[in-house]
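User: Fold this; tokens only.

Assistant: Input:
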Amino acid sequence: MLVHAALITVTTALLHLSVVQSAPQSPHLIFIVADDLGWNDVGYHNPDIISPNIDKLAGSGIRLNQSYVQPLCSPSRSAFMTGVYPFRMGLQHMVIGESQDVCAPLNRKFFPQILKENGYMTHMIGKWHLGFCKWECTPTYRGFDSFYGFYSGGEDYYTHVYPNGYDYRYNLTVNTEAAGNYSTYEFAARAEQIIQDHDQAKPLYLYMPFQSVHMPLQSVHILLQVGTHMLYLYMPFQSVHMPLQVPDKYLEMYPNIKNKNRKALSAMVTSLDDAIGRVVTALQDKDMYQNSIIVFTADNGGWTIFGGNNYPLRGGKVTIFEGGTRAAAFIHSPLLKQTGVIYDGMMHAVDWFPTLASALGITYNDSLDQDGVDQWEAITTLAPSKRSEIVYNMDYHPAPVEGQSAIRFGDYKLIEGYPGLYQGWYKPDSVDQGVEISAGQLANMTLDTPAVQELMRSGQPQSLAKNHYLFNLKDDPTEHNNLYDKLPEVVQQLQERLAEQRKRYVPPNFPPNSPKANPKHFGGVWSPGWC
């Protein structure tokens, strides 16, 4: 029996190493998230963007051509951390606001907790955005040995002020030393320090959800006084308009881009690229690079009105069209046998947890009840995807500005209900992303439609039932040709699949803002400890 068990163990190890070169210990893992990065915002998709480090990593790795995320920040991050669809945790509606007494469910085990149990040193640098009303919700309570960054959805890149309060931490301590320093530089420097100081007797997990290329935020209260329009309810939790922030030297690299926001966002991508280059160099200098796996992904599509671009895909952030949910993503590692290739199989944000656990040779208990599937062998051998179905979102809480419900099965995608705020195809220069546009103008421009007004009056999801789309994504990846009335049998099949998934639906946990969260109660700092 012992011999048999040993053979099983050896066989399992050999299977794992069949897709990577042999390594002396468990690989290091660097997981990089680019905030609000559009499909068309990287150099390997768009030659107008200067991103040599990202392009080199992608070009010598495995590009993921159909890697899906949620249409907004918090839902995607919850999927990364748990391997569970947000609609099953009540996190599918908008994002977690800084004044809401909610966080990613504490009964769900996070990916870094699994890694810690298997000997990894776990560090986080950057944007959390998974709730912080109580300390138990914060990174160092959820599996990270250290945390350097901010809790909320965004902040000023230099002052690190979120509306009404300062938001920057080193572990549990407020870090005022970072004030005045550009956050992308700060995050790169912290990564360099962690790598330089790392004891290679243990493998490293470094989670780096950058703030770039998300814009900073503006005062919540002005918007809330305007009214209860759906856009105003949404914008305080994500952003309203402020000029994008980036050092001048990066702006000077884009003399031919006239649109101010597009120019600034392109420059922010280049500054992000420099930061990623610094991380890779640090790994090489420490002799850790050869035994590292680097993952890069966006958390949602680019936001077209603020400089992001997803062309030729339809829509963008806050939509369940492809432009809002299909991420620029890749895996890079010297351990990979096949490199410089494109993987065209379906993958979803929930798959990263089991996929990377498999890549690291880690097994864990099935009781986590995940939606994610292990795609490591499929991706690294270019085999067919392990999944045939993806749920884009399922949100029946008024008003579902990020899209109501959509599912893909095979090549076909069904959208039922409101698809999200921005429904067109936008070239980089086709939308006025200038600083003069106001929240009121946005509301009139994007939401003044009969269907949306009906939803706002009734508050009922069925009020948008007349919105139907069916696309064949293999033949029509840019979603131009609505086949809903032409293929009733396919529609019925996908409606049945959506109804089956709906049985697992958990209503959104989206409480009103609490005055207890106001930074004035915590010395002008956004802090846990009030719920």
